Amino acid sequence: MDSAAESDTAAPVDRSRAAAAAAERSAALARLLHRDCTLLLQRYEELGWGLKPGVALLLSEFVTQDDSRLAPAKLLGTFTSDLESLPSPPGGRLVTLAQCSGTASTAGRLRVQRWALHHCLKLLERLVLSEEEDEEEEEEESLEALRRTVRDRLSHLIHSTAELMRIMKDEVEEEPEGDCAQAEDEVEGAGGFAVKLWTFRVLHELVHWSEAASHTLHTIHMGRPPPAQEQIL
Amino acid sequence: MQCCVTLALLLSLSIVPAHGQNALRDLPAPQILALEPDLPEQTLSLTWRSDSALFDIEIFHTEFMTVVLNETVAVNADAGTGQHRWTWRSPLPLECTSHSVHIRARNQLTAGQWSPLQTIPGSDIPENSGSYMFPQDKTVLVGSNMSFCCIVKEKESFSEIHYRGQVINATRLSRRSYAVDVSNQPASSTTGTNVVCSSNTRSGVQELSTGAVVFVGYPPGDEGLLCETRDLATAEPCPEDAGKTLRCVSNVWEDNWTLETRNPLGTVQLKDSASLSDRVHLRAPENVTGVQVEAWRATLQWSWSVEAYKSLDMICQVRLFGGELSSLVNLHLTFQIRRNLLSNFTGAGLSSVMLERLWPDEDYTVTVRCASMHSFWRWGEESAPFRIHTKMARPDALDVWLWRDGFHTGRVFWKPLSVRESHGALIGFELSQSGGASFTLPPENLSLPITADNSSDIIVTVAARNPAGLSPASAAMAPAYIADSQLPVSELLGTGGSFQLSWQPDASASRGYVVEWVPAGCRGQCRVNWRKLPEANSSFSVEPGSLEDGVRFTVSLYALSDLAPKLLHRWTGFSRELTPIESVRELSANQTDSGVLLSWKPAVMEHQRGFIRGYTIYKANAGHLNLIANISNPDVHSFSVKGLSLSSYKFVVKAYTSAGEDMGATVTIKLQMDSAEMLFVGILVPLASMFCFIILITICCYRKREWVKKAFYPEIPGPKVPGGWSSPQAPLDVKPSPHSLVHIVETPDRDFIKEGLVPVPEEEEEDENLEVDSDSEPGLLRYYNQVIGSSASDSSASSSASVGSTHTDITYAGIQSPSSSSGAGYRPQTDPNDALRAQDEEVNNGYKPQCSWQMDSPEPENLSGSLGSPTSVTSSQFLIPESSEEKPQTASSWFHGFLSGKS
Q: What are the coiled-coil residue ranges (chain A) (predicted)?
């Protein structure tokens, strides 16, 4: 009986530690992804694909708000479930969570963010496809490699968060609902500017959701007991 | 919004009668048949019917009725249709706002009626509520001028337009449409120049509204544009990557042709001529494959897609990329740099070549490209890469050496085979010893211990095996073991991290030499290196790669012959000396008669990391090291420090090599006296001091014997007792001076010697002061008064002065108070209580001597200044007369007087 009781109590602890380890790995991956997405956005800007400097001027207020959101205290203290309340890029968000619920808990937020990341991956693949179709454009190899890296890391992050959610399934209050997020994967308007703006919005979605996932995963990781130390003889 | 447009149209219609009133009736208004916009070209075509040939045309921006054109044009009717047609190019995109046009006929002097306004709607009509910018994705020449317009979204207000990051002044075209003009545009990047329009929302927030991209560039150039043939029949443009904008006008090859190139900004035509055979650009070989791939060679085969190639004299170049890959990582990309081998082959219609000098068991990637041998034009396209893998071959022979590390031990070593030597993955090594068993070792083994002695030759044979077979056997004969102590060992100094060796040629080295170097003192599995040299060599440089800084190596030179290797010479040294890693050992400091003897042992050889050149001795002083000796003889392991006083000392001893000193070993010592000195200082010195003191006291006492006698043994006069004292004692025989009377007064704390004087301890004195002395007289004076009499009030000042000299041991006061004659007489030295009692008894009939003194004695006021002064016990005169102004004598002055013999 005692051993059974111990195993009953040990199992949640082990699962919690496994969740902590998985959250730590995913958080690290999300941080890398966020850094790469930011780099990718910068590279697009440098290559003239971005909308700077005109847009940069217009976005200054938006960027400032976005940066202020990075303050750790605000991140950890005021990061609410209302993800939609965060500042939007020009033209509004491509990935929306209007139909999502259950984002009050950290686990619920992670579930929703995973769907958002899933849509981001689709948008990125659509972007890559549209650029590859334009055969006359000769891209820099470094940009292509960076874009590939972002795509791979994003894909891995989606898988790792799925694994984390599987470990944390007992903590999700309600049944995981399906894909509640929506993404606007068609270019609005015609002309090169519309394509550029859409590209910018896609990249911004990547930056935004990778950052959001990074903080959610960090919160999950910090709220867990540390992983058991490897025994040293 | 709709009402605004309607109002504008009504206004325009209302203008017509007004104009008509001023027009002549024989010039009717033209009948507009069509108003057609060409949006990409920004043109407006007007078609009308009229009998006139001269017309006034007005074009408005409909919403504000801003006249953008008011022109008189002469347009003749088309002969076939009888219609007039006129086209106007708008500086603004026609989508920017609605345009209205009307026209009237005119002759030389008069004008007809205006036709009704014809309007083409812009994109700013209320039905289109979004935001737009025009033109989109336009391509223009560098330096051209352009106009852009921005139509803001309904319910938003226009903010500004940026062109290349600069805000451009905008002109309002309509309620929602604004236009900017840019001039002399610079070339844009490949992604175009952005024009961004922003607006203010109803909440006042500025946001990006819309934008456009314009591509500003140049027309095509004519550099490097040529035509060539690929099929030996037709002409194709060169370079090939310009094919989309470049074409050779004549497809059939001729000696002359026209080359035309174009892009959205222009067209260029070139004429050139050349012979067909001079412009052959071969296509890539197809179906490249390897046939008969062996270990050292391979045959390559391919085919041609163009039949005409099969008879063409051509040169083919085979490029081999193989082995020894290295990589460079540059941020995100990995570039592979491969060894590139080029081989050229010639022949007619070449489709097969033999590749030789390949390496066994090697991966090669092969590409082929060919060109026409006749008037080489340029290399043709390269074939797709083809990968071949050569077969394995037997390994090369091993380099084997037998190292002796003892009389009965040794180890056979062999060098690993490189990829170029193994010719295939090794399976193992096979060893056999003369007269012994055979071994098979796995491929990771590179040595094997042996047992041997110097009595017989030992030969070990080693061979490597791979799947293709066994390598030729390599034999090594064991040299005789000779310890370092058995032969002179030269010191070897490294040069630039290597050893430079040279020797005299030896006749016995019929098969060359072997230089062997190994870390000194190593036994067993050591890093044994050797190099076999031809017999003609007499020098060798041991490269730094096999050496290690700060490690002592033993280098041996052997002569090879059919017999066992013969040791010719042995060196020992460091390729590069370092500072010792360990300080001297067992450093000790011993106190000697003359100072401190420091002794130590050198560090172990492994920690010396260089030849010890000497030692430096430091004395540590408040954190600083003061060099006190530099011992340049490394065999000296002690040093005596002299001239030290009794104190604590810290010494640091450092060994140094040519690279510098080590960290140093520290020893601390506290110098002390030895036992004899201790005995001398502890016993004899106090004794001698005491003896000297006694001698000094004795001398002083002798010299002052009179004074001592007077001070300590005064002669006390005998009392004159009235009545029953019939036989006075001897001292009383000495008659004092008739006018003098001696009273002996001693300070209380010194009175314990003499009985008869009343001791008045200080505490007791104080008690008496508290209890008895109501008139504040000092106790001593009171004592005096007790002896002399109770009425000596005039001497109180002198008594006080005597008391004030507290160090005065003995006070003699030859005082005869004027009141002493009133009844108080001499009192012998008795108990103070007795004296008190006697005082009571002799108030009226006591002893009253020396009444005559009163005549000779000074005035009472003169006596007060002499109180406390030393006084002869036999004289009533003060021995040290003092003036009334002098202060009472202090103890120090008294002692000074004592030493100077004054009494």
A: 121-153
Which pLDDT score is estimated for A139?
61
Q: Where are the domains of chain A?
A: 14-64+102-170+190-222
**Nearest CA distance, A28 vs chain B (angstrom):** 19
Q: Among A52, A149, A190, whose Cβ lies nearest the Cβ of B332?
A: A149
Q: Which two tokens stand for residue B507?
A: 């006749």
DSSP assigned state of B727:
S
| B661-713: pLDDT as tens digits | 998 999 999 888 776 777 777 788 889 899 999 999 999 888 888 888 888 87
Of B133, B194, B206, the CB nearest to A51: B194
The Cβ of residue B458 has, within 10 Å, a number of other Cβ atoms equal to 23
Q: In chain B, which residues have their Cβ closer than 8 Å to the Cβ of A49?
A: 191
Q: Which of B 190-229 lie inside 8 A of A, CB atoms?
A: 190-192, 194-196, 198, 206-208, 210-213
- Cβ–Cβ < 8 Å for B796, B819: no
pLDDT in tens, B175-187: 999 999 999 999 9
Q: What are phi and psi of B449, to 5 degrees?
A: -75, 150
Q: Does the domain spanning A14-64+102-170+190-222 belong to CATH 3.40.720.10?
A: no
Both tokens assigned to B796: 């109180």
A54 touches chain B (CB under 8 A): yes
Give DSSP secondary structure letters for B273-289: E--GGGSB-PPPPEEEE
* Res B109: pLDDT: 78
- Nearest partner of B809 among B754, B741, B738, judged by Cα: B754
Q: Identify the pLDDT of residue A6.
A: 46
B560-585 pLDDT per residue, tens? 998 889 999 999 999 999 999 988 99
Chain A residues whose beta carbon lies within 8 Å of the beta carbon of residue B164: 53
Q: Among residues B781, B859, B847, which one has the least CA distance to residue B820?
A: B847
pLDDT tens column, B358-377: 889 988 889 999 999 888 88
Instruction: Compute the average pLDDT of residues B252-275.
Output: 76
Mutate to test the interface with B, among A45, A46, A52, A58 (most CBs of B within 10 A): A58
> What's chain B's Rg over C-alpha atoms?
68
Cα angle B216, B219, B222; round to 5: 145
B321 pairs with which residues across the strands?
B340, B365
Give dist(CA A224, CA A12) in Å, integer.
11
Q: Check B332 against A142: CB less than 8 A apart.
A: yes
Question: pTM here?
Answer: 0.47
- Please give the interface size between A and B, counted as residue pairs whose CB atoms are below 8 Å apart: 76
Complex prediction ipTM: 0.71
In 3D space, the residue among B454, B410, B413, B450 whose CA is nearest the CA of residue B433 turns out to be B450
Domains of chain B: 31-120 (2.60.40.10), 132-217 (2.60.40.10), 225-273 (no CATH), 286-390 (2.60.40.10), 400-574 (2.60.40.10), 585-675 (2.60.40.10)
Q: What is the 3-state secondary structure (H, E, C) of B126-174?
A: CCCCCCEEECCCEEEECCCCEEEEEECCCCCEEEEEEECCEEECCEECC
Q: Which residues of B touch A53 (CB under 8 A)?
A: 162, 164-165
Strands B447-451 and B428-433: unpaired
Q: Is A123 on the interface with B (CB under 8 A)?
A: no
Of B853 and B432, the structure prediction assigns the larger pLDDT to B432
pLDDT at B722: 58
E-assigned strands of B575-637?
585-591, 595-601, 614-621, 624-631
- Compute the average pLDDT of residues B232-246: 69
Q: Does B418 touch chain A (CB under 8 A)?
A: no
SS3 B574: strand
Cβ pair A192:B136 closer than 8 A: yes
